[in-house]
């Protein structure tokens, strides 16, 4: 076999991602059509929540699944952007063309110094320092009453466009979130399959090797951190616009833990893993909380079982099953 | 003003000692087993609840102490034997997730068994008096708590530095042997060390109950502060944990009294600063 | 002629433990230098210091005469230095091709440099051909035999287009047949590449190296041509009866 043969063989391989995307495109089309087919309002609300948290989990997955950085403070950026849009709307303008990009920008800018410092640490210490920074954000939101409203939270003014109120109805917001989610998911996908994304995977697999291969690893880690924070910020903006309210709990460590759980349950490192995880966790939460108050117990057991039996989450299990069916082995 | 300062210092010292008892187990467990046990806070609360039940049945504070310590030790050793042991060869994240899972499970089980109310254990009559020193009255119980903390620090330090078992523990802290190839005795030692850590956490829970109260959520509150102490003191470093406990305990107490808005902000900032100072200038990774 | 690699009084301590003490090493361009010594002598530590992976406690490192003390690994890479690791540092969950792709892509980077897919693919294929791994291009590293993983370790270093190549025990853990194959690959490398190799297999050392440096307990015990080292009593003592 010559080099040319191998190259030809590699290039003729079927493009697997196409299948994934046709499935996702179908699902998005179905969700877009659903309100016309009589999807009840409360289901729309649930879908909105799932999409917002899917986006937050997808953004964390850039760090956790692709770069191998376990951030325990991702909710900080969700919270920062969530507060930023409220503050901007109150003090500057409620026009969504101003508030939305500006709030996301604030989250991204905050991620630069926080990331620059945090990526100097690795493993458990990275986890602890991201946790520390996120808790500082939480405490600031909780205590800085004149700006954030403190523990009472803050009312976020409704969005306008050129002076006219928009996104006022549940249905219009549903379409808005669906569109933003689709665009962001596509962007994130493009990022992780790009050369940049593959470099991140290399860092996850072997940081010393990447450094020896001439990559300035810290620069890539910082870029991944900022990308994650930016899309986390988009999720935070959507959350604030949906609830028209933001409270310090959005940045609390339990929120960071919850997103982490979503990514891990769904399958870190698989693109759709976080979406699966967010969907399952939120559905479980909604259904179970009407039967039992011991929601933590269920979550804890899920954790223990998954980490003991299925490290790669549900997406990993599905992939294993799929490969098994095709007889390719593990 | 002076009274206030003295009172806050004593409160801070008491809090520091409780933190140290918690950090002792966590740090030792990490130093030797390389496991960060996020369920450690649950053992504090568990000890407090065990003690509460024993007190309700016997009205003896001593019985409460014994039941709490032994109970937490047994649950800890069961956890180590049944589950954790398999995870020594896994990476940090897996261990963190596993123990976090157990923390959640323990929290809800305790909620089921003891409810959501705030409980407390009264200070035993023998210790409920106050001691008169230099014109101020100090609650005797608090003074004794500080004594217990210092005594345990000295005892553990001596045990680790001066005994054969201690030498073995030091050796395995310094040189992380492949755990899968370990002999039976080391495995057993691991179980005991883990049990010792959870026992001390349980003890802290019952001793602290008259001061902190007993309520759901306390487990995660103490876990977070303990993690900060252990990180600031250096994972696996017993004397580091002692001094860090003093630092954090006093800083948080003074902070809460003087400038409540910023108290916890300062504590988290302190942890971040310590982490960064230690990491600064160090090479990014160490491999052959 | 300026030395390709030179260390000047390089020392490394871990607390009170001295892993390297005042190591002077000078390797001419194109030279093939073996570094031998018993376990724990400090050979890998020296490599990590030269490659920028660890800072020395004291002393300096020069590459082609330029002081590179304290430089990052990527800066040394930019000067043409590549290395293999004693313990494999591979991208375990990626395929062989993807591994080498990451290594080659480091050269095809930059905002304004347009990347030619064809040129990159040809380069990857060429590297794999040189280490006999073309047939396994689609295999996930985690599923490969250990000997093949060692070959890939070499491939990743070669993909860096090295002028200076550091090889840390490339044949460790290989069968005799695999060792022979690896030796042939190393001998076939272009002579312009300066090679530093740490190796316990003396057959490999003597068939490949021009000169040999012996480290023991962090200090240079001997430094000379293959012939000089073979006749050195001190060296035989350190190796305790192992025939040289
Ligand atoms: N991070 C570290 N902390 C403490 N000691 C270390 C560290 N890294 C290496 N050492 C010690 O430095 C000494 C030299 O190690 P090194 O890996 O360089 O030896 P080597 O010559 O490559 O041995 P081998 O033939 O076994 O590969 C050893 O005694 C090792 O225990
Ligand atoms: Mg070595």
UniProtKB/TrEMBL annotation, chain A:
Subcellular localization(s) per the UniProt record: Cell membrane
Keyword terms: Cell membrane, Membrane, Transmembrane, Transmembrane helix
One Pfam family here: BPD_transp_2
Record's keyword annotation contains Ribonucleoprotein: no
Membrane topology classification: Multi-pass membrane protein
UniProt keyword Lyase present: no
InterPro entries documented for this protein: ABC_transp_permease (IPR001851), LivM-like (IPR043428)
Ranges annotated as spanning the membrane: 16-36, 42-64, 71-92, 98-117, 124-144, 173-201, 222-246, 258-284, 296-322
Predominant location category: membrane
Protein name, per record: Amino acid/amide ABC transporter membrane protein 2, HAAT family (TC 3.A.1.4.-)
From TrEMBL, chain B:
Topological category with respect to the lipid bilayer: Multi-pass membrane protein
Keyword Transport among record annotations: yes
Stored PANTHER family: ABC TRANSPORTER ATP-BINDING PROTEIN, BRANCHED-CHAIN AMINO ACID TRANSPORT SYSTEM PERMEASE PROTEIN LIVH
Keyword field: Amino-acid transport, Cell membrane, Membrane, Transmembrane, Transmembrane helix, Transport
Compartments where found: Cell membrane
Organism: Chelatococcus sambhunathii
UniProt keyword annotation of Repressor present: no
Protein name: Amino acid/amide ABC transporter membrane protein 1, HAAT family (TC 3.A.1.4.-)
InterPro entries listed in its UniProt record: ABC_transp_permease (IPR001851), BCAA_transport_permease (IPR052157)
Domain of life: Bacteria
Automatic annotation (TrEMBL), chain C:
Ranges for domain ABC transporter: 5-242
Top-rank taxon, per record: Bacteria
InterPro entries cross-referenced by the UniProt entry: AAA+_ATPase, ABC_AA/LPS_Transport, ABC_transporter-like_ATP-bd, P-loop_NTPase
S-adenosyl-L-methionine found in the keyword field: no
Alphabetically ordered keywords of this record: ATP-binding, Nucleotide-binding, Transport
UniProt signal peptide: none
Keyword match rRNA processing: no
PANTHER family: AMINO ACID ABC TRANSPORTER ATP-BINDING PROTEIN (PTHR45772:SF7), CONSERVED COMPONENT OF ABC TRANSPORTER FOR NATURAL AMINO ACIDS-RELATED (PTHR45772)
Protein name, per record: ABC-type branched-chain amino acid transport system, ATPase component
Phylogenetic lineage: Bacteria, Pseudomonadati, Pseudomonadota, Alphaproteobacteria, Hyphomicrobiales
């Amino acid at each position: 076999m010559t080099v040319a043969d191998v190259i030809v063989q590699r290039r003729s391989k079927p493009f697997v991602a196409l299948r994934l995307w046709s499935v996702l495109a179908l699902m998005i089309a179905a969700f877009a059509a659903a309100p016309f087919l009589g999807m009840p309002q409360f289901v729309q609300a649930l879908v909105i929540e799932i999409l917002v948290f899917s986006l937050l989990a997808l953004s964390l997955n850039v760090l956790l699944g692709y770069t191998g950085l376990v951030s325990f403070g991702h909710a900080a950026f969700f919270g920062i952007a969530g507060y930023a849009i409220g503050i901007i709307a109150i003090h500057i303008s409620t026009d969504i063309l101003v508030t939305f990009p500006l709030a996301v920008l604030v989250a991204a800018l905050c991620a630069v110094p926080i990331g620059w410092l945090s990526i100097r640490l690795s493993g458990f210490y990275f986890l602890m320092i991201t946790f520390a920074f996120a808790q500082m954000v939480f405490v600031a939101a909780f205590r800085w009453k004149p700006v954030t409203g403190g523990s009472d939270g803050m009312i976020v003014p409704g969005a306008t466009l050129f002076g006219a109120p928009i996104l006022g109805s549940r249905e219009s917001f549903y379409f808005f979130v669906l569109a933003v989610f689709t665009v962001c998911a596509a962007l994130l996908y493009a990022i992780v399959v790009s050369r940049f994304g593959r470099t991140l995977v290399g860092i996850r697999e072997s940081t010393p090797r990447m450094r020896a291969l001439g990559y300035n690893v810290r620069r890539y880690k910082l870029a991944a951190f900022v990308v994650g924070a930016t899309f986390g910020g988009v999720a935070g903006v959507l959350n604030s616009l949906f609830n028209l309210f933001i409270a310090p709990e959005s940045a609390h460590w339990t929120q960071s833990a919850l997103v982490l759980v979503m990514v891990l349950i769904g399958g870190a490192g698989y693109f759709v893993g976080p979406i699966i995880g967010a969907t399952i966790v939120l559905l479980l939460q909604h259904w179970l909380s009407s039967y039992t108050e011991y929601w933590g117990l269920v979550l804890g057991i899920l954790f223990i079982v998954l980490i003991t039996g299925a490290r790669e989450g549900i997406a990993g299990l599905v992939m294993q099953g799929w490969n098994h069916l095709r007889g390719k082995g593990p | 003003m002076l009274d206030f300062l003295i009172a806050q210092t004593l409160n801070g010292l008491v809090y520091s000692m409780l933190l140290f008892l918690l950090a002792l187990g966590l740090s030792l467990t990490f130093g030797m087993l390389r496991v960060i046990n996020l369920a450690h806070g649950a053992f504090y609360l568990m000890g407090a609840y065990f003690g509460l039940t024993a007190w309700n049945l016997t009205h003896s504070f001593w019985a409460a102490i014994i039941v709490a310590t032994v109970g937490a030790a047994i649950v800890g050793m069961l956890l180590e034997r049944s589950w954790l042991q398999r995870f020594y060869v896994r990476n940090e994240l897996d261990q963190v997730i596993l123990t976090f899972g157990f923390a959640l499970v323990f929290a809800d089980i305790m909620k089921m068994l003891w409810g959501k109310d705030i409980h407390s254990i009264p200070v035993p009559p023998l210790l409920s008096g106050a001691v008169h020193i230099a014109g101020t009255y100090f609650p005797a119980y608090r003074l004794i708590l500080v004594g217990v903390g210092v005594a345990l620090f000295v005892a553990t330090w001596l045990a680790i530095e001066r005994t054969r078992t201690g030498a073995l523990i030091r050796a395995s802290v310094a040189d992380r042997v492949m755990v899968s190839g370990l002999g039976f005795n080391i495995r057993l030692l691991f179980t005991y060390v883990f049990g010792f850590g959870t026992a001390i956490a349980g003890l802290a829970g019952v001793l602290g109950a008259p001061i902190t109260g007993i309520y759901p959520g306390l487990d995660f509150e103490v876990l977070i502060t303990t993690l900060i102490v252990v990180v600031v003191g250096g994972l696996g470093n017993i004397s580091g944990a002692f001094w860090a406990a003093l630092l954090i305990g006093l800083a948080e107490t003074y902070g809460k009294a003087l400038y409540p808005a910023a108290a916890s902000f300062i504590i988290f900032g302190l942890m971040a600063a310590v982490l960064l100072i230690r990491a600064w200038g160090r090479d990014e990774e160490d491999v052959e | 002629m300026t030395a390709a690699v030179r260390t000047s009084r390089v020392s490394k301590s871990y607390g009170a433990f001295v892993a390297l003490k005042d190591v002077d090493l000078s390797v001419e361009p194109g030279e093939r230098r073996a570094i031998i010594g018993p376990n724990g002598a400090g050979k890998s530590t020296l490599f990590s210091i030269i490659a920028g992976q660890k800072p020395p406690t004291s002393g300096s490192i020069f590459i082609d005469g330029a002081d590179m003390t304290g430089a990052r690994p990527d800066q040394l890479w930019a000067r043409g230095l590549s290395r293999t690791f004693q313990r494999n540092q591979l991208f375990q969950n990626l395929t062989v091709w993807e591994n080498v792709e990451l290594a080659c892509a480091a050269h095809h980077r930059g905002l304004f440099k347009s990347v030619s897919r064809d040129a990159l693919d040809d380069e990857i294929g060429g590297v794999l051909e040189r280490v006999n791994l073309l047939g396994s291009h689609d295999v996930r590293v985690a599923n490969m035999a250990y000997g093949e993983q060692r070959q890939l370790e070499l491939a990743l270093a070669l993909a860096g287009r090295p002028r200076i190549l550091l090889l840390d025990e490339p044949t460790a853990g290989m069968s005799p047949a695999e060792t022979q194959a690896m030796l042939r690959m190393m001998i076939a490398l272009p002579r312009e590449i300066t090679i530093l190799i740490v190796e316990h297999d003396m057959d490999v050392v003597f068939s490949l190296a021009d000169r040999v440096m012996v480290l023991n307990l962090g200090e240079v015990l001997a430094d000379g041509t293959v012939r000089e080292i073979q006749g050195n009593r001190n060296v035989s003592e350190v190796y305790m009866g192992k025939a040289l």
